[in-house]
């Protein structure tokens, strides 16, 4: 999920953490850390600077 504001990010972070603690999902990437845009992306698209990507994968 991509968030653009800190309040949105906090909600997503807490919901994803609850999914992981229940055992229904696993974090993809570095243990639940968000992925930020690269410097090159921000140079091309300044509006992307506040974006954060968080990813979980549903267990089967």
Largest β sheet strand count, sense and barrel closure: 2 strands, antiparallel
The secondary-structure class comes to: alpha+beta
* Unreliable stretches: none
Helix content: 25-40%
Q: So what's the oligomer here?
A: single chain
Radius of gyration: 13 Å
Global outline: elongated
Number of helices: 2
Mean pLDDT: 95
Distance between the termini: 20 Å
* H and E string: EHEHEE
The count of strands amounts to: 4
SSE layout:
Layout: E1 2-3, H1 6-22, E2 25-27, H2 39-44, E3 52-53, E4 56-58
Antiparallel strand pairs: 1-3, 2-4
Model description:
The chain has helices spanning about 5-20, 40-45, and strands at about 1-5, 25, 50-55, 55-60. Strands 1-3 form a two-stranded antiparallel ribbon. About 40% of the residues lie in helices and about 15% in strands. It has one domain. By secondary structure, the chain is an alpha+beta fold. The mean pLDDT is about 95.
Short note summarizing the structure:
The chain is α+β, with helices and mostly antiparallel strands and 60 residues long. The protein has one domain (2-58).
Keywords:
two-stranded antiparallel sheet; 38% helix; 2 helices; 4 strands; 60 residues; single chain; alpha+beta; elongated
């Amino acid at each position: 999920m991509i968030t653009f504001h800190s309040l949105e990010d906090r909600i997503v972070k807490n919901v994803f953490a609850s999914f992981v603690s229940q055992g229904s999902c696993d974090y993809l990437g570095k243990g639940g850390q968000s992925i930020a845009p690269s410097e090159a992306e921000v140079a091309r698209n300044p509006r992307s600077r506040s974006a954060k990507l968080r990813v979980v994968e549903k267990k089967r």
